[in-house]
Amino acid sequence: MVGNAPPVSVVIADDEPVVREGLRLILETQDDLAVLGGADDGEQAVRLCAELRPQVLLLDVRMPGRDGLWTLRELARRELLGAGGTRVLMLTTFDLDAYLDEALAAGASGFLLKSSSYEELLAGVRATARGDGSLSPSLLRRVIDGYLAHHDRPSPDPADVERLDRLTARERDVLDLIGEGYNNQEIAQRLVVSGHTVKSHVSRLLAKTGCRDRGQAAALARRARERRR
Questions:
Q1: For the domain with range 8-139, which CATH number is right: 3.40.30.10, 3.90.550.10, 3.30.43.10, 3.40.50.2300?
Q2: Where do the domains of the chain lie?
Q3: What is the dihedral of CA 172, 174, 175, 176, to 10 degrees?
């Protein structure tokens, strides 16, 4: 925990009790993270988020009954999702990569493989709480490759083209790097600019494209990338 800042509050939603308990035990080893509760389906996850207002929801993509995608949409409908509310880090297995675009478009801040390491889990939760999202380059590239191997190249969406045309060349560079999973610090290093400059670019590109957050921006970047391949 930094200074007197309160710990990041987390709710875990997964239908497997062993997974929920394992995640809780890992997170509670950290002074800057606090698990407020657990849910075994989407409806319970939404109720807990409405009641407890956690900063981060660790949400399994596939659950019986109301799944992770339904949960995202319901949180958005109730205006509980995103900055000032709850940010969502999706839990998935590699064979569910087709859910990525839909989940990001619905408001997910990032994805975490269930096979991720202890360190990746903690880093993902912290990044999500900060608003950086958690789309690591290694995960995102694997998912993109797997997705493209099973899908035809999509036709350009006129709405996407119009949104992208509003961006400057540098804002497009930043958007592409967001789509590859880099955080602001990593983008600054790659573009050899300051973190403040990157933050300004991100704010402007979100406003110009109408994306609610980095997750939706990443989905837009992914669609553009798929059309270029």
A1: 3.40.50.2300
A2: 8-139, 158-228
A3: 90
Fold agreement between 8-139 and 158-228: no
- Give one word for 158, left, alpha or beta, with left for phi > 0 and alpha for psi -120 to 50: alpha
CATH number of 158-228: 1.10.10.10
Q: Using an 8 Å Cβ cutoff, are 184 and 195 in contact?
A: yes
CB atoms within 10 A of CB 216: 20
Q: What is the DSSP letter of 55?
A: S
Quote the CA–CA distance of 106 and 69 in Å, as a whole number: 7
Sign of CA dihedral 90, 40, 66, 76: negative
State how far the Cα of 34 lies from the Cα of 31, in Å rounded to an integer. 8
Q: 119, 161 in Cβ contact below 8 A?
A: no
- Mean pLDDT, consecutive 10-residue segments, the chain of 229 residues? 79 94 95 96 96 96 89 93 87 65 78 84 88 59 50 59 90 90 87 92 91 78 72
Q: The whole model's pTM is what?
A: 0.69
